[in-house]
């Protein structure tokens, strides 16, 4: 069996700075322009042949992306210009695990220095082991991606049905049916704010207590269904704040910094003051409220106010105009969404399990702590 070896990172693969290209210069085309965190557009020219590995160089450091088509690396990134016969996908995972916090520079905007990176000593396995490690980790990522695509498709289906029934009124001849009316959001659900227990009281917070959600939690976790945030609150913290316990199925909606993050509570939860959540009336259900809020961001945002940052107040949230259908059609829409929601929640939970497994395996495989031939996924 070939041994792992120590070498300079620059002898393992070479990094190169991306190329200047402003948003206004991007011409519609087939080639992705890859910046430090994502694809910022598509251009009619490319600079690098696929496959590619890109890492954030400026602004957001260390974000790693694998690109499977010819692309243009933006100057906010570094890209692998020479894999030197090594596995591109292994290098992607290598960089994901590799610490970059100690090789940044710059004052106002942090940057990643490729010369410092390439001078570091690293330990790497032979190509055959690289390929096996990459195959194991890729199989987990591929399943996660597939689940995400399925969930996106289900979301589009439900959103399209909501628009068809309750915006375009297509099943009803394009007109709002008799018996329906335009009312206020407060007529179909209870609007609930949140509260933050004193941060000075350590005994108000715990890792395993009453679920307490912040907008940051919805920013970090893009899941549709949420059970807990990064931190829970204790019974003592709850009692010494104005937080309100909301039941499973409540639609959580961030009301500031920013407005518009949305999720559905998987269990009883509380939130901080950055939410105006909606507990659906029994005859309405959470599906109608969820898709109404999701499809009316601009309306809600325009009703917000504030000098430092915009916020939608409780009064404004209650007065948001909403079409109120009859109970029969509300029930029909909820019934359609129930099985869809169950499938989405199941796939999100599976992705959490897969992500945890990948995150556990990644450092152990990359260090050689776990023999690659002993892993079956």
Describe this structure in words.
With 377 residues, the protein is α+β, with helices and mostly antiparallel strands. It folds into 2 domains: 5-124, Adenine-n6-DNA-methyltransferase TaqI, Chain A, domain 2 (Alpha-Beta Complex); 181-324, Alpha-Beta Complex (Adenine-n6-DNA-methyltransferase TaqI, Chain A, domain 2), CATH 3.90.220.20. It is built from 10 helices and 22 strands. A hairpin with a 7-residue loop joins strand 5 and strand 6. Helix 4 packs antiparallel against helix 10 (327-367). The radius of gyration is 25 Å and the shape is globular.
Provide key terms for this protein.
Adenine-n6-DNA-methyltransferase TaqI, Chain A, domain 2, 2 domains, 35% helix, 21% strand, 377 residues, globular, four-stranded antiparallel beta sheet, alpha+beta, single chain
């Amino acid at each position: 069996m070939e041994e792992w070896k120590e070498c300079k990172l620059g002898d393992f693969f070479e990094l190169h700075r991306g190329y200047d290209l402003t948003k206004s210069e991007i011409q519609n085309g087939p080639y992705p322009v890859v910046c430090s965190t994502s694809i910022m557009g598509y251009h009619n020219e490319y600079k690098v042949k696929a496959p590619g590995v890109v890492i954030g160089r400026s602004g957001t450091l260390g974000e790693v992306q694998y690109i499977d088509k010819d692309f243009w690396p933006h100057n906010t990134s570094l890209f692998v210009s020479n894999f030197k016969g090594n596995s591109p996908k292994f290098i992607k995972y290598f960089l994901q695990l590799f610490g970059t916090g100690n090789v940044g520079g710059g004052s106002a905007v942090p940057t990643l220095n490729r010369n410092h990176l390439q001078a570091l000593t690293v330990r790497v396995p032979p190509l055959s082991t690289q390929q096996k490690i990459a195959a194991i980790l890729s199989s987990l990522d591929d399943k996660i991606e597939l689940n995400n695509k399925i969930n996106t498709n289900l979301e589009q289906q439900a959103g399209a049905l909501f628009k068809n029934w309750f915006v375009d009124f297509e099943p009803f001849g394009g007109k709002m049916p008799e018996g329906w009316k335009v009312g206020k959001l407060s007529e179909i659900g209870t609007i609930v704010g949140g509260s933050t227990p004193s941060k000075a009281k350590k005994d108000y917070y715990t890792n395993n207590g009453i679920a307490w959600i912040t907008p940051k939690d919805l920013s970090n976790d893009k899941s549709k269904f949420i059970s807990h945030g990064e931190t829970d609150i204790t019974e003592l913290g709850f009692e010494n704040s104005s937080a309100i316990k909301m039941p499973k199925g409540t639609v959580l909606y961030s009301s500031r910094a920013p407005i518009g993050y949305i999720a559905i509570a998987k269990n009883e939860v509380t939130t901080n003051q950055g939410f105006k959540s909606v507990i659906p009336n029994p005859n309405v259900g959470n599906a109608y409220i969820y898709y109404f809020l999701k499809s009316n961001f601009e309306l809600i945002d325009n009703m917000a106010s504030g000098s430092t940052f915009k916020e939608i107040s409780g009064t404004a949230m209650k007065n948001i105009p909403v079409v109120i259908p009859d109970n029969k059609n509300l029930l029909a829409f909820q019934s359609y969404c129930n099985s869809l929601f169950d499938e989405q929640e199941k796939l999100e939970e599976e992705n959490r399990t897969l992500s945890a497994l990948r995150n556990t395996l990644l450092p152990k495989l990359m260090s050689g702590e776990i023999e690659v031939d002993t892993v079956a996924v």
